[in-house]
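Backbone-to-sequence.
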Protein backbone atom coordinates (compact mmCIF):
# COMPACT_ATOMS: atom_id res chain seq x y z
CA UNK A 1 0.00 0.00 0.00
CA UNK A 2 2.85 2.34 0.91
CA UNK A 3 4.42 1.65 -2.48
CA UNK A 4 1.30 2.88 -4.27
CA UNK A 5 1.18 5.99 -2.10
CA UNK A 6 4.78 6.84 -3.03
CA UNK A 7 4.05 6.30 -6.74
CA UNK A 8 0.99 8.54 -6.47
CA UNK A 9 3.04 11.22 -4.76
CA UNK A 10 5.72 11.08 -7.50
CA UNK A 11 3.07 11.40 -10.19
CA UNK A 12 1.60 14.35 -8.33
CA UNK A 13 4.99 16.09 -8.29
CA UNK A 14 5.49 15.41 -12.00
CA UNK A 15 2.08 16.88 -12.76
CA UNK A 16 2.79 19.97 -10.66
CA UNK A 17 6.15 20.44 -12.38
CA UNK A 18 4.54 20.18 -15.81
CA UNK A 19 1.91 22.73 -14.83
CA UNK A 20 4.65 25.09 -13.66
CA UNK A 21 6.56 24.77 -16.94
CA UNK A 22 3.36 25.45 -18.89
CA UNK A 23 2.61 28.56 -16.84
CA UNK A 24 6.15 29.87 -17.35
CA UNK A 25 5.92 29.39 -21.12
CA UNK A 26 2.51 31.04 -21.16
CA UNK A 27 3.78 33.99 -19.13
CA UNK A 28 6.68 34.55 -21.54
CA UNK A 29 4.26 34.66 -24.46
CA UNK A 30 1.97 37.03 -22.58
CA UNK A 31 4.33 39.40 -20.80
CA UNK A 32 2.57 42.09 -18.75
CA UNK A 33 2.76 45.60 -20.15
CA UNK A 34 4.71 48.12 -18.10
CA UNK A 35 2.61 51.14 -17.16
CA UNK A 36 4.13 54.29 -18.70
CA UNK A 37 5.19 57.15 -16.44
CA UNK A 38 2.54 59.34 -18.05
CA UNK A 39 -0.66 57.38 -17.72
CA UNK A 40 -4.24 57.94 -16.61
CA UNK A 41 -5.83 55.25 -14.50
CA UNK A 42 -9.36 54.33 -13.51
CA UNK A 43 -10.15 53.11 -10.00
CA UNK A 44 -13.60 52.05 -8.82
CA UNK A 45 -14.39 51.50 -5.13
CA UNK A 46 -17.40 49.31 -4.41
CA UNK A 47 -19.76 50.13 -1.56
CA UNK A 48 -19.01 46.79 0.14
CA UNK A 49 -17.93 43.22 -0.55
CA UNK A 50 -21.48 41.90 -0.91
CA UNK A 51 -22.24 40.06 -4.15
CA UNK A 52 -24.69 42.76 -5.17
CA UNK A 53 -22.26 45.63 -4.60
CA UNK A 54 -19.43 43.86 -6.40
CA UNK A 55 -21.69 43.05 -9.35
CA UNK A 56 -22.72 46.71 -9.48
CA UNK A 57 -19.07 47.77 -9.51
CA UNK A 58 -18.31 45.45 -12.43
CA UNK A 59 -21.31 46.66 -14.41
CA UNK A 60 -20.21 50.28 -13.97
CA UNK A 61 -16.65 49.26 -14.87
CA UNK A 62 -17.80 47.76 -18.17
CA UNK A 63 -19.99 50.72 -19.12
CA UNK A 64 -17.39 53.34 -18.24
CA UNK A 65 -14.55 51.48 -19.96
CA UNK A 66 -16.57 51.06 -23.13
CA UNK A 67 -17.27 54.78 -23.28
CA UNK A 68 -13.80 56.07 -22.40
CA UNK A 69 -12.00 53.64 -24.71
CA UNK A 70 -13.85 55.23 -27.59
CA UNK A 71 -12.73 58.68 -26.48
CA UNK A 72 -9.01 57.92 -26.19
CA UNK A 73 -8.63 55.37 -29.01
CA UNK A 74 -7.09 57.85 -31.44
CA UNK A 75 -5.31 60.14 -28.96
CA UNK A 76 -1.51 60.18 -28.93
CA UNK A 77 -0.70 62.43 -25.96
CA UNK A 78 -1.53 62.24 -22.28
CA UNK A 79 -2.26 65.99 -22.28
CA UNK A 80 -5.04 65.57 -24.85
CA UNK A 81 -6.43 62.56 -22.98
CA UNK A 82 -6.37 64.47 -19.69
CA UNK A 83 -8.26 67.47 -21.06
CA UNK A 84 -10.82 65.30 -22.84
CA UNK A 85 -11.51 63.14 -19.79
CA UNK A 86 -11.74 66.12 -17.43
CA UNK A 87 -14.24 67.81 -19.72
CA UNK A 88 -16.41 64.69 -19.79
CA UNK A 89 -16.49 63.77 -16.10
CA UNK A 90 -20.23 64.62 -15.96
CA UNK A 91 -20.79 61.96 -18.63
CA UNK A 92 -18.93 59.38 -16.52
CA UNK A 93 -20.98 60.45 -13.49
CA UNK A 94 -24.15 60.04 -15.54
CA UNK A 95 -23.18 56.55 -16.72
CA UNK A 96 -22.49 55.35 -13.17
CA UNK A 97 -25.70 56.89 -11.83
CA UNK A 98 -27.69 55.31 -14.66
CA UNK A 99 -26.39 51.84 -13.74
CA UNK A 100 -27.14 52.44 -10.05
CA UNK A 101 -30.68 53.48 -10.98
CA UNK A 102 -31.15 50.44 -13.25
CA UNK A 103 -30.07 48.10 -10.46
CA UNK A 104 -32.11 50.00 -7.87
CA UNK A 105 -29.03 50.12 -5.64
CA UNK A 106 -29.79 53.47 -4.03
CA UNK A 107 -26.08 54.34 -3.69
CA UNK A 108 -24.47 57.72 -4.10
CA UNK A 109 -21.89 58.05 -6.86
CA UNK A 110 -18.86 60.29 -6.57
CA UNK A 111 -16.53 60.83 -9.54
CA UNK A 112 -13.22 62.63 -9.03
CA UNK A 113 -10.19 63.27 -11.20
CA UNK A 114 -6.74 63.96 -9.82
CA UNK A 115 -4.00 62.22 -7.87
CA UNK A 116 -5.26 58.99 -6.32
CA UNK A 117 -3.46 56.69 -3.89
CA UNK A 118 -2.62 53.22 -5.28
CA UNK A 119 -1.11 50.31 -3.32
CA UNK A 120 1.97 48.38 -4.42
CA UNK A 121 1.11 45.60 -6.86
CA UNK A 122 3.06 42.71 -8.34
CA UNK A 123 1.66 41.78 -11.76
CA UNK A 124 3.53 38.90 -13.36
CA UNK A 125 7.21 39.84 -13.20
CA UNK A 126 6.54 43.56 -12.95
CA UNK A 127 6.30 45.53 -9.71
CA UNK A 128 4.11 48.62 -9.71
CA UNK A 129 5.08 50.72 -6.67
CA UNK A 130 2.58 52.41 -4.41
CA UNK A 131 2.12 56.10 -4.89
CA UNK A 132 -0.08 58.96 -5.98
CA UNK A 133 -1.11 58.53 -9.62
CA UNK A 134 -3.33 60.52 -11.96
CA UNK A 135 -6.66 58.77 -12.16
CA UNK A 136 -10.42 58.88 -12.31
CA UNK A 137 -11.79 57.67 -8.99
CA UNK A 138 -15.37 56.41 -8.88
CA UNK A 139 -16.63 55.83 -5.33
CA UNK A 140 -19.87 53.93 -4.86
CA UNK A 141 -21.72 54.42 -1.59
CA UNK A 142 -19.31 54.08 1.33
CA UNK A 143 -16.47 52.88 -0.90
CA UNK A 144 -15.47 50.15 1.59
CA UNK A 145 -15.53 47.14 -0.74
CA UNK A 146 -12.88 45.55 -2.97
CA UNK A 147 -11.75 47.89 -5.70
CA UNK A 148 -10.87 47.45 -9.36
CA UNK A 149 -8.43 49.44 -11.45
CA UNK A 150 -6.83 49.60 -14.86
CA UNK A 151 -5.02 52.07 -17.13
CA UNK A 152 -7.27 54.17 -19.35
CA UNK A 153 -4.53 55.98 -21.26
CA UNK A 154 -2.67 54.52 -22.97
CA UNK A 155 -5.59 52.09 -23.33
CA UNK A 156 -4.61 49.09 -21.18
CA UNK A 157 -7.96 48.23 -19.63
CA UNK A 158 -7.84 44.86 -21.33
CA UNK A 159 -5.42 44.07 -18.49
CA UNK A 160 -6.99 43.82 -15.05
CA UNK A 161 -4.14 44.99 -12.81
CA UNK A 162 -6.34 44.40 -9.75
CA UNK A 163 -5.70 40.68 -10.12
CA UNK A 164 -2.01 41.08 -9.46
CA UNK A 165 -0.48 40.13 -6.14
CA UNK A 166 -0.68 42.69 -3.36
CA UNK A 167 2.65 43.57 -1.79
CA UNK A 168 2.59 44.46 1.89
CA UNK A 169 4.08 47.85 2.71
CA UNK A 170 6.18 48.55 5.78
CA UNK A 171 5.12 51.04 8.40
CA UNK A 172 1.66 52.28 9.39
CA UNK A 173 -0.40 53.20 6.36
CA UNK A 174 -3.99 54.17 5.83
CA UNK A 175 -5.91 50.98 5.17
CA UNK A 176 -6.53 50.48 1.47
CA UNK A 177 -9.76 48.98 0.16
CA UNK A 178 -9.29 45.34 -0.69
CA UNK A 179 -8.56 44.42 -4.29
CA UNK A 180 -10.28 41.70 -6.23
CA UNK A 181 -8.86 38.18 -6.02
CA UNK A 182 -8.93 36.22 -9.25
CA UNK A 183 -10.29 32.68 -9.48
CA UNK A 184 -6.80 31.50 -10.44
CA UNK A 185 -5.37 32.87 -7.20
CA UNK A 186 -8.11 31.15 -5.19
CA UNK A 187 -7.39 27.85 -6.96
CA UNK A 188 -3.66 28.15 -6.24
CA UNK A 189 -4.41 28.61 -2.54
CA UNK A 190 -6.71 25.58 -2.54
CA UNK A 191 -4.06 23.42 -4.29
CA UNK A 192 -1.35 24.50 -1.83
CA UNK A 193 -3.65 23.72 1.11
CA UNK A 194 -4.43 20.29 -0.36
CA UNK A 195 -0.73 19.43 -0.78
CA UNK A 196 0.10 20.49 2.78
CA UNK A 197 -2.77 18.43 4.16
CA UNK A 198 -1.83 15.44 1.99
CA UNK A 199 1.83 15.50 3.06
CA UNK A 200 0.89 15.85 6.71
CA UNK A 201 -1.16 12.66 6.48
CA UNK A 202 1.71 10.79 4.79
CA UNK A 203 4.40 11.80 7.25
Amino acid sequence: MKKYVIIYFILLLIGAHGHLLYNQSFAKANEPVVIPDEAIRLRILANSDSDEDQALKREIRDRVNEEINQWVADLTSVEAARELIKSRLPIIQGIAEEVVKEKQAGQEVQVDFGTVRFPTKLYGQFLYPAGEYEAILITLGKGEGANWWCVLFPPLCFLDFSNGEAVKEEGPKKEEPKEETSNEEKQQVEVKFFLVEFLSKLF
